[in-house]
Every structure is written in structure tokens, then in C-alpha cells.
Design brief:
The protein folds into 2 domains: 200 residues, HAD superfamily/HAD-like (Rossmann fold, 3-Layer(aba) Sandwich), CATH 3.40.50; 69 residues, Gyrase A, domain 2, CATH 3.30.1360. A 5-stranded parallel β-sheet has the order 5-1-13-14-15, with helices on both faces. A 4-stranded antiparallel β-sheet has the order 9-10-12-11. Strands 2-4-3 form a 3-stranded antiparallel β-sheet. The chain is built from 11 helices and 15 strands. The protein is of the alpha/beta class. α2 runs parallel beside α10. Helices cover 37% and strands 26% of the residues. β11 and β12 form a beta hairpin.
Length: 281
């Protein structure tokens, strides 16, 4: 039976120019491969080493890109290696099978959201009424499932984010701050549920995962083994769990380390660098 590898993309395996600057402390410039172009502009990168490792992983395991991006945003990405059979988009709201959203899965997700949490319009209206135009640049609705703001991070009041998180929690939603984006996402809309569905369909004997944000926490907890980089929302909060390794590497070098760990476990290889107490926090 196969090994299933479900990995977040942005700031885990691929990095924007801004994310490279924020998370790459090593002054030596790695050789980069552009993996996303939008409106004729390069947007996201991974190292050439990561590209080679991902190609190997695609041949060795069931690799499932797992992202909060919408389907349209995901389709801008051109990852190296075999085309994935399964892709998790919109934080689990869409399960792509050979590039096409599975309608039954999407219907199950939307039915659960309608039953368990406040409606999208209520959250959207709250954001519109409380977010200050001084630091908000864009309001976005993603796939009619969740909302996010693009903000000027240096002007964003921390207290506002905390108050929003409390308000959202009371209504069955969660809030995540990732770079210049603030996400408000229904709690039942999870990457982990979609990963479990792919595991069921593929008969995977082992599930591996990686991610850097609060929206990846449920994915890491659901997998048999997980890794988080030394940057991002989870690292900043000191979040960890028994089966999750906290890596010291940051930025694109963390992406390389994560892919090496995926390959090592997939191949059943033992290593002296298995992640002791310091790595596991």
C-alpha cells in the first residue's frame, strides 16, 4: 500500500519573493526555480534541489498538494515531477481528481458548513464593518467558502486580530494571519478531512504532512508524521505535537529539509538525523 504525502505549498515548499526575503537568513543565494507565473510576472519559487527532491517524491509516494489557495490560484503553479492525481484546494473545500473538482466531496463539505457554523455573509459583513481601510488593501471571497483580507502588515493592529479571532470562534470560524493575509475560515473546512478521504481512496498505509500556518495544524495532527518549518505562524507561537517535528531550518532551506524527510520516511530509511528532543521541542 502507498505512502500518502500531503504538504502545504506557500511558505512550506514554495516561496514568493517577499517570503524569500523574510525567511531566508542565509546570505548565500540558492539556485531557484520559478514555479508560478501570473500576468507575465514570476511569483513563486523553490530551490533547484527541492525541485529534484519533489520529482523523486512524486515517483515514490502519492504526493498531494494541499493548499488554502482557490482552484484558480493553484492552477497557476507548475510543480516539478509527475502531475498529482489528487490535489486539495480551498483548505479542503475542493478535492481535485485528475484536475477536476469532485462534486460529491464538495457537496458534503458545503452541507456540513451550513449545519455547523455562521454563514459566510455574516463574517464578510463583520470584516467590512470593522477592518480599517488605512491598513486593508483587498477584501476577497474564496470559492464562496471563506474570506480573507490583504493588509499592510506593519499597520495592522494586533488587538484587532485577537478580537476578530474571539468573535469568529464564537461563530464556528477560525482566524489565521499569514504574511499579508488574514484568513477567516469555517472550522469544519479542514485540510485534514480531505487528506483522510484521499487516504481512504488510495489505501495509504502511512500519511505524512507538512505546513507552517494555523490552518495546517489539523493536517499535521491528522497525519502519522508531520513537520513544520522554523518560520511561520506555528513556529512563532511555539506550536508542536507529539508526532510533529519542529525543524530549525527557515525559508527555502526548510522546504528542502521537509522534502528530504518525506523521502527518507517513504523509503523506510533510517538516519542518525531522525529528530531528537531538540527537534521535537
Amino acid at each position: 500500500m502507498p505512502v500518502l504525502v500531503a504538504s502545504d505549498l506557500d511558505r512550506t515548499l514554495i516561496y514568493s519573493a517577499a517570503a524569500l526575503a523574510l525567511t531566508m537568513p542565509d546570505p548565500r543565494a540558492p539556485r531557484l526555480l520559478c514555479v508560478e507565473v501570473h500576468e507575465s510576472r514570476p511569483l513563486s519559487y523553490m530551490t533547484e534541489t527541492s525541485a529534484g527532491l519533489l520529482t523523486e517524491l512524486g515517483d515514490a509516494a502519492v504526493f498531494v498538494p494541499t493548499t488554502t489557495r482557490t482552484r484558480k490560484q493553484y492552477q497557476r503553479i507548475n510543480l516539478p515531477g509527475p502531475a498529482p492525481t489528487y490535489v486539495i484546494c480551498a483548505n479542503g473545500g475542493h478535492l481535485l481528481v485528475n484536475g477536476v473538482s469532485d462534486p460529491d466531496w464538495h457537496a458534503r463539505v458545503t452541507a456540513r458548513l451550513a449545519e455547523e457554523c455562521a454563514p459566510l455573509d455574516e463574517v464578510r459583513e463583520h470584516l467590512a464593518a470593522t477592518a480599517d481601510p488605512v491598513w486593508v488593501r483587498k477584501h476577497r471571497i474564496a470559492e464562496d467558502l471563506f474570506v480573507y483580507l490583504v493588509v499592510e502588515r506593519e499597520l495592522l493592529p494586533e488587538e484587532w486580530v485577537k478580537e476578530l479571532a474571539v468573535w469568529a470562534d464564537d461563530r464556528g470560524w477560525t482566524v489565521s494571519l499569514q504574511g499579508r493575509k488574514i484568513y477567516a475560515v469555517p472550522k469544519p473546512l479542514t485540510k485534514s478531512a480531505a487528506m483522510r478521504e484521499v487516504a481512504r481512496r488510495t489505501g495509504a498505509r502511512l500519511t505524512l504532512a507538512a505546513g507552517d500556518s494555523l490552518l495546517d495544524a489539523d493536517l499535521l495532527l491528522a497525519a502519522d508524521r508531520g513537520w513544520r518549518p522554523g518560520h511561520g505562524e506555528l513556529a512563532e507561537s511555539g506550536w508542536t505535537a507529539p508526532a510533529v517535528s519542529a525543524l530549525p531550518e527557515r525559508g527555502v532551506l526548510a522546504g528542502e529539509r521537509i522534502l528530504r524527510e518525506f523521502l527518507r520516511v517513504t523509503r523506510g530509511e533510517d538516519s542518525a538525523d531522525r529528530g531528537g528532543p531538540a527537534d521535537r521541542l
